[in-house]
Amino acid sequence: MVSISVYLFFVLTMKTRMNQDIEQQTAMYREAKEAPDYVRWQLDSNKGPISELAADLRREKPTLIVICARGSSGNAAVYAKYLIETQLKIPVLLSSPSISSIYTAKQNYVGHVVFLAISQSGQSPDLLMATRSARDSGAKIISIVNDTKSPLANTSDVVIPICAGVEKSVAATKTFICTLSAIINLVAEWRQNDELLRELTTLPALLKTAYAKDWREGLNKLMNVTNLFVVSRGLALGVAQEAALKLKETCGIHAEAFSAAEIKHGPMAIVQKGFLVFIYSPQDQSQESINDMAVAFLERGAQVLSVGQHYQHALNLESTVTCSPPLRPLLFIQSFYKFANALSLARGYNPDSPPHLNKITETI
Amino acid sequence: MVSISVYLFFVLTMKTRMNQDIEQQTAMYREAKEAPDYVRWQLDSNKGPISELAADLRREKPTLIVICARGSSGNAAVYAKYLIETQLKIPVLLSSPSISSIYTAKQNYVGHVVFLAISQSGQSPDLLMATRSARDSGAKIISIVNDTKSPLANTSDVVIPICAGVEKSVAATKTFICTLSAIINLVAEWRQNDELLRELTTLPALLKTAYAKDWREGLNKLMNVTNLFVVSRGLALGVAQEAALKLKETCGIHAEAFSAAEIKHGPMAIVQKGFLVFIYSPQDQSQESINDMAVAFLERGAQVLSVGQHYQHALNLESTVTCSPPLRPLLFIQSFYKFANALSLARGYNPDSPPHLNKITETI
């Protein structure tokens, strides 16, 4: 009996090690792991320019910030909206590129408007059309872009380089995290929030800790699932959307993200016994509403995979919250990327080249 | 052989008739059917006040419109954003209520800002907090609300009554359609778009034609499906979102809506052979991008249920397009409500009381 247990333990340990070896060979794994180093590089190399830009913006006092982005950059834009509106109290409009690209309706911008375009490649035609249209309407164009020689960079008044290096995996990882750190950097300099600026210098180390987290015990729960909800709120909604997008792209799971408030206005009707809900708790002011939903879902027998808060009868995964709320979503998504890469392989997918997708998506 | 055929035909006809009888007994069926009459009543009774409000708005020249809404009203807000930005060229910001309700971050509104709150009940605390915060920031508060004695109505400078009467079914139908007609009415008066105003008077008749459409042949396709995408774009994106929400609420289907552009930036990876996509073609400037996606999905063996455009190998359902683009989404959703009601019953649900939902949703 003892010898069988020892044998089984040995086999399982070997299997886990072999899986870990395979997982570490994907570009997605490597690139997500590189995020902390690129964040450090970005913070060093953007310091002067962002500080100057922030001084200009404090002088110019924009009355409206329009953000234009799609895909993972669109999820970063949602994070930016919450961060700017809570930190700077300037209203943020998430723009629909089709208004410019297919309806050719140039918006009337009155006062000082900043148009912030976010893109890894800086090449999608609809984003470019929206940016040119905003420039013609008198907006100041700032772009957060990884390819600083792209058409988008050339159309901008100010370019904030994402500094994430080359990203080969179709699934964005380090570019997403570096986009968020660039957003925090800009907002913290703009608001002269020294505490946040100081904390930002610790982000690379925090991200490394987050990438060391092992959520392997969550793999089984998601091995055979077709669809699920990712629930969070507020500052963390953007990363919940990013997690849902990654589950679609790399794991073939139909995951949809909701805020803990919006889900009550209808969608939660389909959360029945056995339905899987992935909940991320950022432990900020939104936590009470997230707890309410988690408890309600557990009471009706839903399967809950929880990060950031311990719930009875849920599968609770470890997270890092030793930092202020603006940084926490970045640590969640850093841990999540490692998990999504492993899950993708476990479900028989190649995380680096999802079906039917290209690295650069061009839409009109 | 002939007698068996005759017998089968008789049985099937009887079964369809019996199903139709049952379908017509739900509040959802009756209330959706009433929409055209309430639209007519609304257009008559709001004519003077909306014309006055429009004259004021032309004089005041708002520089930004902020819309706050959740659930079905949130889907109406998405429609409003596209209609206002294409017709009036004034930027529209979709507000996140949590910024006011849980983060208590009052936004700095500079210039003439209109804050448009949309709600059936006018009671959700987060919507009220966001509205009060906007009022304190100097915005002009306009509400589109069904309950004109609600706290939201009392907090508004101008109330546009939805005039949809009492809605008993938890699933919003006539209140959604009447909200869209109120939005069109306001925008058409504001822009002094006489053609659109003239066409609006024909909307009740068009809606009646739309409700007579029979999409019964689509029921089988959706009888056993767990999850699907609803795809459209631009002016029709809001009703695609509303259709997805209704499939969740009333039919237990995990349906998610995407624009034909956004879906290319990742989500389409899960559209494989057999995956069901419900496509709505509004036949406006967005049609080319929708066609591209439909053809790509059909080529990879996805099941396509199409409304508004005929595709080979798709199940094509009849629609009404004998009107200008702004009105078309209303006709789509009017037909869709009848379909969702029938599908709900066919799948064993009660469309009038979805699991875990109340008619008035209160979130903070």
Describe this structure in words.
In chain A, the strands form two sheets. Chain A has a five-stranded parallel β-sheet with strand order 2-1-3-4-5, sandwiched between helices. A five-stranded parallel β-sheet of chain A has the order 7-6-8-9-10, sandwiched between helices. In chain A, strand 6 (227-232), helix 11 and strand 7 form a beta-alpha-beta unit. Chain A is α/β, with parallel strands linked by helices and 364 residues long. Chain A folds into two domains: 27-201, Glucose-6-phosphate isomerase like protein, domain 1 (Rossmann fold, 3-Layer(aba) Sandwich); 212-346, 3-Layer(aba) Sandwich (Rossmann fold), CATH 3.40.50. Chain A is globular, with a radius of gyration of 21 Å. The model of chain A has no long low-confidence stretch (mean pLDDT 95). Chain A has 13 helices and ten strands. Chains A and B meet through helix 3, strand 2, helix 11 and strand 7 of A and helix 3, strand 2, helix 11 and strand 7 of B.
Could you provide a short overview of the structure?
The structure is a homodimer of 364-residue chains. Chain A has 364 residues and is an alpha/beta fold. The first copy, chain A, contains 13 helices and ten strands.
Low-confidence stretches of chain A: none
User: Strands of the biggest beta sheet of chain A: in what spatial order?
Assistant: 2-1-3-4-5
CATH superfamily of the largest domain in chain A, by name, is Glucose-6-phosphate isomerase like protein, domain 1
Q: What's the average pLDDT of chain A?
A: 95
**Classification by helices and strands of chain A:** alpha/beta
Q: Approximately what portion of the residues of chain A adopt beta-strand conformation?
A: 5-15%
Q: How many H/I helices of chain A?
A: 13
User: Which CATH class of the largest domain in chain A is shown?
Assistant: Alpha Beta
How many domains of chain A? The number is 2
- Helical residue percent of chain A? 40-55%
Q: Any idea of the CATH topology of the largest domain in chain A? A: Rossmann fold
- For the termini of chain A, the CA-CA separation is 65 Å
How many distinct beta strands of chain A? 10
- Greatest interface (CB-CB under 8 A), with counts per chain: A-B, 67 and 67 residues
CATH architecture of the largest domain in chain A: 3-Layer(aba) Sandwich
Oligomer: homodimer
User: Rounded to an integer, what's the Rg of chain A over CA atoms?
Assistant: 21 Å
Instruction: Give a short account of the largest sheet of chain A.
Output: 5 strands, parallel
The string of secondary-structure elements of chain A, in order, is: HHEHEHEHEHEHHHHEHEEHEEH
